[in-house]
Structures are given as structure tokens and as C-alpha cells.
Design goal:
With 334 residues, the protein is an alpha/beta fold. The chain contains 13 helices and 11 strands. The protein folds into 2 domains: 172 residues, 3-Layer(aba) Sandwich (Aldehyde Dehydrogenase, Chain A, domain 1), CATH 3.40.605.10; 128 residues, Aldehyde Dehydrogenase, Chain A, domain 2 (3-Layer(aba) Sandwich). The strands form 2 sheets. It has a 6-stranded mixed β-sheet, sandwiched between helices. Helix 6 links the parallel strand 1 and strand 2. Helix 1 runs antiparallel to helix 4 and helix 9 packs across helix 10. The protein starts with a helix and ends with a helix.
Length: 334
Amino acid sequence: MLLKERVDAIVKLGFYMGKSLLIDNPNLLRKVEYSNSWFTPQNVTKSLENWSSQLTLDMIQSWILPYNLPNNLTAKEVLIIMAGNIPLVGFHDFISVIICGHKAVIKKSSSDYILIDKIINKLFEIDTRFKKYVEFVDNVKERSFDAVIATGSNNSAKYFDYYFKKSKRVIRRNRRSVAILDGNESQADLKGLSEDIFSYFGLGCRNVSKLFLPNEYDLDKLFNVFFNFSDIINHRKYANNYEYNKAIFLMGGNKIVENGFILLKQEESLFSPVAMLYFEYYSDIEKVNSFIEQNNKDIQCVVSSSKIAFGATQNPNLWDYADGVDTVSFLKSL
């Protein structure tokens, strides 16, 4: 397939994801939530809308223009091991492989298979030639691949690195995101920060899990805007995490601040559990910058007035690559 043909098909797919997918499949949201209760209708709809806004002709052309991708190339088999923490989290890897003209060999996550199946089957309807460029697999141990893109935990990443050591590979590990406040944020900024924290229940690597606050910052400023997300506690799994973590930390003699749906704990670590947000006070911004530099391998996004905008972490553009690894350059080099 020519590059233009691939692009045109993906544009049609993006339009379908935003306009027709849920209309044509009125029970889809219910089925997805039944298979994974973290994937609420609101979160699935948000993901579909975000993807539809990215898969337009203008956005795709802006994305791929710097790479000067060839019209035709020898297709390589690229294994994609998808995560399933938030809806369609592995979809960018799939689109990247397809746009470059390679074959996507997909190991779906058991947590996110219904949406992937539905969307890729629609791509087959748009252009049946894609059937030659997509394959689903369950067992990856009995095959070799030209390249591997795998996303998982730090433990699974060690396994991926070892098992696929003979293949060119991109292996993604656990990362979290942080936000730096200076006290001059507007209400709109703080509302955006709330989205960065609570979207997808905070399960994504782009979700803010830690705040850096100036000394004597009034936490009530945060609680006032967080209240818009107070209904999150009505989700059973989230509420279970909230109550469990509250009990564990209080039994351990830890000081926490709570408002009924989010726990705040003063803590140096990046990796806060579900329903909990870590924070630190600072007087010297250079110490914050030093912390971020030292922990760069564990940080996905830095939100601040001078870096990623408040409210933008879970709305990445096509060229905002996970872990800062340029997937298209990697695929073009195969």
C-alpha cells in the first residue's frame, strides 16, 4: 500500500471513531465496562474523542512530514505487546506501525481487547488490504520478530528485555507524571490540573501522581477544584482503593490529608497508589528541577506554567511519544 492510501484509511478510521462507532454499536460501552470496570463510558468516550481529534488529515500530515516516509518499503513484522491500564493505550503503537508500512503483530491486553478488536475490524472494512498487515497472537514465545514494542511494568520489562534481546526493541516501563505549582495558577489552571490527576482514575503514566507546592501553599485551593470530581468515589474499585490505602497508611502512623475521595500524603516518592496523591513543599525551585532530572527515567510528564500545560497530559498529540522515544524514527530504521 502507498503511504497516501494508508493515511487516507486512517483518517477515515479516526472520523468513524469520533462520529459513528458508538452509534453503530449501541451496546459497546456497556460491554467494555462489563469486561473492565475501570473503563467507564465516560473514560472510553473521552479516549475515542481524543483519538478522533488526532486522526485528521492535517494532524497526521503534521506528524509524519518530518520523517519523509517512503511510499513503499519492505514490511517488517513488529510485535506490539499492549498494556491495558487505560482505554486504547496501545493504539498509538499500532497506528505508528501501520503508517510506516510494517506489519503489526498484536498481543492484546486482556484488559483492553474489545475496543481494539472493534476498531481494527473497522479498518479492515475501510480497506481489506490491511488484513495482510495485522495479526493477532496470544503466544509470542514460539516466534521471532523483526522488532518489538512492549509496554508493561518494571518487572515485565526485565522479562521483555531478556526474551527479545535478539530483536530491535522499544521497552516501556512504569512512569508517572508530576506537576509544579508556583502559587500563581488561575482557576482554569487548577481545573486543568484536576483533569490531569483524576482522568482515567489516575491509572495512566501521564496522570499526575505528585505535586510540588511552594512553602505554605493552601491545600484548600486544590480541594475546592477537586470537588468537581467528588463523584469518583462512587466507583466501586476506586472506593475500595481509597478505603484500603487510607486504612493502611493510618495504621502505619502516617499523616494524610483527605476530603472523602482523594488522599494527600507528603512524600518524596513518585509512585502514589490509586486514590492517593503525593506532594512536597519547596522553597528552592532548583532543588525541584534537580529531583526531576535525577528521576527523569521514571517521569513521563512535567506539568507547570513553563512546561506541559495544565489539563493537557491526557490529550497528547501524535508526536508526543511515550518515554520520549520516537517510535516512527525507530520503525523507519528497521
